[in-house]
Protein 1
Amino acid sequence: MSATAYDAIVIGAGQAGVPLSTALAKSGRRTAIVERAYVGGTCINYGCTPTKTMVASARVAYLARRAADYGVLAGEVRVEMAAVRKRKRDVVDSFRSGRERLVETTAGVDLVHGEAGFLDAHRVAVKAGDGASTELSAPLIFINTGGRGIAPPLRGLESVPTLDNVSVMELDAVPERLLVLGGGYVGLEFGQMFRRFGSEVTVVQRGPQLFGREDADVADEVARILVEDGVEVVLDTDAVGVEPDGAGVCLTVRGPGGERVLSGSHLLVATGRGPDTRALNLPAAGIAADARGYVQVDDRLETNVPGVYALGDVKPGPAFSHISYDDFRVIRTNLIEDGSASIKDRIVPYTVFIDPQLGRVGMTETEARASGRRVRVAKIPMNYVARALEVDESRGFMKAVVDDDTDQILGCAVLGLEGGEVMSMIEIAMMGRLPYTALRDGVFAHPLLAESLNTLFGSL
Ligand SMILES: Cc1cc2nc3c(=O)[nH]c(=O)nc-3n(C[C@H](O)[C@H](O)[C@H](O)COP(=O)(O)OP(=O)(O)OC[C@H]3O[C@@H](n4cnc5c(N)ncnc54)[C@H](O)[C@@H]3O)c2cc1C
């Protein structure tokens, strides 16, 4: 079979792949983008977009139940999962079709439906859903195949129905009793969301705290908030086996108090994600992956094979949509704009969309202290913040770590109302290398959350 020759091939239409394909085409390179499922990848179809749409529904249910706190009489709150799901599907459809239109209407890009695998370093075979196979070749190939959920080695897991981040958002009824395996951001966003929809929820976390990499005070406050919302949080506990129990499941766990059995109508497995290289046939191209299967890249995202690059979750490092998009920027700068960009030392912000949000950027306190710097920690509870009290949402706290020798801000954690937005203001100060005193003494409009930065840094 003779291969169709392109200037560039992008494998996977994720957060980096879509803008990269159109940028390459606009730079005069004939480009093929291969996608086996939906344009937009995980973020738009099964990740950020649908979850945040459903988090919004859950928050309305939460506030409706609290209506009387604000002097409003709202009556009984009932959640219709089919309507929540329809709203989610509508938003996803509109985002997805926007991306599809972008690809299809950009001259010089061919959208090829199917699953790509390498034949050699510059040739791929694409298998379509109907079994047909085509070959494409190009001197430049970009891997943007993203990540996938990794199921834990758990006795009996194959014998029970389980939910993952895709199927849990397709339920048409509120689960009676949802067991969530994994206390990372995916497990906690779904755990709190379904509690608010009306499920009884238990989150089982293997380690001694939720969010294994965050400071212990942040993780403890998150756990306290979830427990206050009625979520059972089980820490330091391993799942050892699972078996069917009528239409539901029985999950045996082992924790500090010994073994116990949790029964649930549904089991959500959210124990972590890894790279999706299953169909790529990396060895055929001689592309190196690390022990966990991540495609190895240098600071400019090139693999060990010249002309082959990897972007997004398929490479090691932070797995977020905005990081994948920034990977695209790095490639655009280096290959299209003749500039020089690298992924080294970039600032990595993220927000966990539990409610209140956890916004994080830069070093944790633990990391800052371990770095050997002399550090000071600014910390205030959200009930010091006028705006949070006025809207009666004052759970959480904010903290920032400052280098005592330079007054530079090293990082922050904002667990509070619009925590992601407040974190981003601090991130902007970090990008501009402002000393913390600029935020301590800056004039911000009253009564915004922004003015809490005066109070936060005034606490030092
Ligand atoms: C439940 C959930 C919630 C999330 N929430 C957030 C959030 O709030 N904020 C945030 O920043 N991140 C969030 N993420 C993470 C975010 O979705 C990912 O970091 C992001 O989508 C990674 O994008 P990517 O470009 O690496 O690839 P992806 O978006 O994963 O896209 C990869 C694409 O490649 C395709 N593909 C794979 N293999 C092949 C092949 N061999 N041939 C052809 N096509 C192939 C796949 O079908 C997919 O469409 C969330 C993830 C999940 C699961």
Note: The chain is about 30% helix and 25% strand.
Protein 2
Amino acid sequence: MAETIGVGMLGAGFIGMIHSFALRSQELVRTPPSLLPRLISLADLDEPARRRCQERFGWQTAGADWRAPAEDAGTALFINAAPNHLHLEPTLAAARAGKHVVCEKPLAPDADTAFRLWSETARTGVVHQCAFIFRFIPALKLFREIVQSGQIGEVIHFRSSYLMSTALEPGQPMSWRFDRAVAGSGAIGDLGAHHIDQARCLVGEIAEVSALGKTQVPERDGHRVEVDDAFVAIAKFANGAIGTIEGSRIACGYGHTGRIQVDGTKGSIKFDVERLNELEIADGIAAGFRTIQAIRAGHPFADFWFDGGIQGSHPIGWTECFAHQAHHLLTAIAGQGSVAPVAATFEDGYRAAEVCEAMLRSWRSGRRESVTYRGLAG
Ligand SMILES: NC(=O)c1ccc[n+]([C@@H]2O[C@H](COP(=O)([O-])OP(=O)(O)OC[C@H]3O[C@@H](n4cnc5c(N)ncnc54)[C@H](O)[C@@H]3O)[C@@H](O)[C@H]2O)c1
């Protein structure tokens, strides 16, 4: 019998459902982690939402108060899948109660809060993971491995765009995503944070940014909207590479498009989230691009689901990536690995928050802004 770990979770909305799926799938994957999750305690203010999630995924208890999953004696892992302004207090309460913690991205609405969440969690000694899910997409894991192997030479240029149309309808109701006090920013923190984290994985630290934001729908349900519906940014990396990052929730016709490209001195690689299992790679100036699939046996995560051989050559989907992420965390909690560098820690969440905030500063100031990262004392 495998050992188990009690899990508590705050938030039964969109991403809380996916985390629940990821937890439940652990005992079904080809190589289950040595710690199997038990879904003990779920909290969400919205009664129908928490009941739906409880019934579908089998959470033992469900209530409105986040203190139950964060502080309940029966849980040893707390997942924070709530809106951004609720990331700090419940996550810190759980860490102080000795629970390992996962927090959704962006780690916090602003860099100061993200720093506090990282530094105070680190002091407790618990395992912490920030849910930058792109790190668990097979093709992007392969992308990172190819860049790190030196195959495309020195990285000189990063470019990405993350496009959705979720905020284009002016009649769409006000939600926490449009409220600066809750979300911190709009497309910058929601979409940009993912690609900032990928830029850090594929290229290195961002040193300077210049950004513009756009609020297309300035009022929703009589509430003023003060966050960006879309942004464009240019970035200078500490290693001298340059980059562009753009994100939009008002890009008509785009469902969930995330393009990430890196040019090196010996080759270039392209990825698009709409083709989740593929990379396009050029190995030289005259080579042109060829498509490689990140689903062959031996490629990242194929062995996770399939029995190898020809069975190992099947595509993997978005939701399954959350199972990879949960498996990685449970393995680290079991003492058989570490969260970093494959997954993001709260330090990575904090560093992305500094870049988001520098973009917001630049939008306001009209100037290029430096990004300064704080470290932990002692
Ligand atoms: N990793 C990803 O790809 C990804 C994707 C979507 C969302 N997210 C992140 O996940 C978080 C949640 O996003 P979502 O899309 O699930 O939002 P959502 O609005 O669908 O769900 C949030 C849930 O939190 C509940 N809630 C709000 N305040 C509460 C409180 N005080 N106590 C208890 N419950 C409360 C709401 O009732 C709602 O059910 C955000 O930080 C978001 O940025 C990450």
Note: The domain at 137-312+352-362 is CATH 3.30.360.10 (Dihydrodipicolinate Reductase; domain 2).
